Amino acid sequence: MRSSGRRDLTYSSDRGNSTDRLSDYGDIEARFSVRSSEAPDGDLCYLVPGRPHTVSQCQFNAHAHTFIIIHGWTVTGGFDSWVPKLVEALLEREPQANVLVLDWLARAHQHYPTSAANARLAGRDLAKFIHWMEVALHYPLEKLHLLGYSLGAHVAGIAGDLSKSKVYRITGLDPAGPGFEHADAQGSLSPDDAGFVDVLHTNTRGSPGRSIGIQRPVGHLDIYPNGGSSQPGCDLHRTLLRIATSGIQNLDQLVKCSHERAVHLFIDSLLNAEQQSLAFRCSSKETFKRGLCLSCHGNRCAKLGYDTRPVRPRRSLTMYLHTREVMPFRVFHFQVKVHFFSQEDVTFRDQPLKISLFGTLGEKEDISLVLEWVEDYVFKFWERSGPSPFYIRRLRVKAGETQARVVFVAKDGEFGFLSRGGDYVTFVKSKEDPASQTQQRLHRLKMIGSLFKQSTE
């Protein structure tokens, strides 16, 4: 451990005689349970490195994809309820796959700093298991996908770092923050640990090193749902209501609700493939909230979860999205651009706008089938009346999920009239091509001047 106002884990290298070290299976304490759809919560058979008979005994398919689920710190000493749910979801999506659960419960059921330090030992055990798969079973590591939750994400990263060959993919499900926020690449999950490392950050609230989930990017692709700090439905009031209605067994959700949401978002991506959530690259969550980051050009958007496309950028791609509070979590993202005109030179900041879109799926042939809008577009300031009205010529709406763009124009006249606290203004979808509209406006400006000036005189 080191101390400089913060406490993070550092480790000496285990790479001295890495092949010899990885081939010594005698000191492995972790257990590798093969799960099935019939018994997703049952540890009925274990693969044991150095004992090849367990391969046939556990009906392990050396030609199929393999998922290894890695739990995190445990207070109870047992597996969390999400483990069999993730097992079932993986096998429903990939029925022929091998799904293993890494059991390091004895080391994870300690005071947190001790369990965090034990992640190194569990990672070493996993690296030895991977080495045995590759050498003894001739298993191709491009078919191996590690999924680690909380401390388990760092276990996966440490194993990937120690392994002689790269595994195909590591998915970090809200990797633990305390002890790892400032740790080096060998002591935590990092982009170098697998061919592709994708990470979901769902509980980063608090100062660096004190948040339950790690705040910094640690993968090739780091996604921060709802900004990453906390998740919808996980506020204190709703969590207490859940405890009151469902029982004291949900008391741990006071702490784990946002942290565990990363797991359920991944499960959602497995079970609801037709309703994939889409994340968008952005410089910060504040910029994303301003609606400035809804482009899919050049790897600027990605599917969240299982179906995300592997990328290996020079720097981590940081992406954001909004979600619902229950499964399916997908919501649609819209960017609305409004050009205001006024007779006065005025400035307003952070004004509340209420925008309503009305649409029916399949109503127009020339609009995306994901979302369509009918004629009315409602728009209103919800503040007390003020002296400064605005005029609006058009609104431009972009749908993030389809990348479709639609222009709305005032229903009555060239401009819509908007006053603070006044009546709402209705806009309708423009039937003209945007390019032809621009040409007409420039021609009209050249010939007769601005209609805006005429309408305000």
From TrEMBL:
It is found in: Cell membrane; Secreted, Extracellular space, Extracellular matrix. Residues 332-429 form the PLAT domain. It is a peripheral membrane protein. One of its GO terms (molecular function) is heparin binding. Its main location: membrane. One of its GO terms (cellular component) is very-low-density lipoprotein particle. It is an enzyme of class 3 (hydrolase). Gene3D superfamilies: alpha/beta hydrolase. GO terms for biological process: lipid catabolic process; very-low-density lipoprotein particle remodeling. Residues 1-22 are annotated as: Disordered. InterPro entries: AB_hydrolase_fold, Lipase, Lipase_N, Lipo_Lipase, PLAT/LH2_dom, PLAT/LH2_dom_sf, TAG_lipase. CDD domains: Pancreat_lipase_like (cd00707). Keywords: Calcium, Cell membrane, Chylomicron, Extracellular matrix, Glycoprotein, Heparin-binding, Lipid degradation, Lipid metabolism, Membrane, Metal-binding, Nitration, Secreted, Signal, VLDL. SUPFAM superfamilies: alpha/beta-Hydrolases (SSF53474), Lipase/lipooxygenase domain (PLAT/LH2 domain) (SSF49723). Its EC number is 3.1.1.34. Belongs to the AB hydrolase superfamily. Lipase family. This is Lipoprotein lipase. It comes from Conger conger (Conger eel).
